[in-house]
Amino acid sequence: MKIFIFGKNPEYKDSNIVMLPVGFEKTTTYKKGTSKGPEAILEASKNLELYDEELKLTPKLSIFTDEIKIKDNQEDMVNEIENKSVKYLKDNKFVLMLGGEHTISLGLVKALKNKYKDFTVLQFDAHSDLRNDFDFERLHHATVMRRVHELKIPIVQVGIRSLSEEEELFIKKEKINTFYANDFNIKKIISSIKTNNVYITIDLDVLDPSIMPSVGTPEPNGLNWNQITSLLKEISKSKNIVSADIVELSLIENLMYPNLTAAKLAYKLLTYKFS
Q1: E-assigned strands of the chain?
Q2: Is the pLDDT of residue 154 over 90?
Q3: For residues 268 and 266, what is the distance between their CA atoms, to the nearest angstrom?
Q4: Which of 78, 186, 243, 263 has the most other CB atoms within 10 Å of its CB?
């Protein structure tokens, strides 16, 4: 797939990054529209300046944008993502996946488990996503981190401000490092990550709705732009970011700035990683 994003697209063999848009939307519970999120991020990326004013440089990013056939079933979709991502990782590509609903993260996490002996999932999210099931569905955007936990992969949660009593009890029982939105502390967050390798999953509703209204389930009292980018910057200095995803952009008609915000967040993450 040849899509203009963050500059000229190389051939696969010449790239070090694979951008993987996955517009899967099956279990969204509040506001629909995440299936169009990846396309909107890619389109908005055409309007980004490539020079980073914070770091005073233009990062050298060699990005190949692939495509994936959307499945109707959650399990089939997760398996498709895992199978494709295994190849990317074997070829030493950094995979940045764009969603779509949060369920898709499980596929890339499972692929990473094939390559890395240990890594931590750093979850930016308004919701803990630790339910055992939702409406009798075990594979759901509200259960995705419970499924990750079952793979014996450590999780650190940031920006949480909405969860069930069941999830709160599970967090305490399993001793999951959860940093609520009103307890944001970069040093504490980084010190809680015990592995060198880190997978970053960003549900855009981690941001306050005043910054990011275009999400499936907005929640007040979210993180601001400087908080999330400052943490990403420090993580890139102290840890090895092995892969990432940005999910849950749910379009609002005629409201364009959230799309650009999501695209710029993707660009910042890659800039920190590769500069």
Answers
A1: 17-22, 63-65, 94-99, 120-124, 155-160, 177-180, 197-203, 240-247
A2: yes
A3: 6
A4: 243
Token couple for 14: 């010449």
240-260 pLDDT, tens digit per residue, is: 999 999 999 999 999 999 999
Query: Could you tell me where the beta strands, DSSP code E, fall in 68-208?
Result: 94-99, 120-124, 155-160, 177-180, 197-203
Question: Among residues 273, 178, 191, 177, which one has the least CA distance to residue 233?
Answer: 273
CB-based contact 178:102 (threshold 8 Å): no
Q: Is 224 helix (H, G, I), strand (E, B) or coil?
A: coil
Q: What percent of the chain has pLDDT over 90?
A: 86
Q: What is the pLDDT of residues 219-245, one digit of tens each?
A: 999 999 999 999 999 999 999 999 999
CB within 8 Å of 87: residues ≥ 6 apart = none
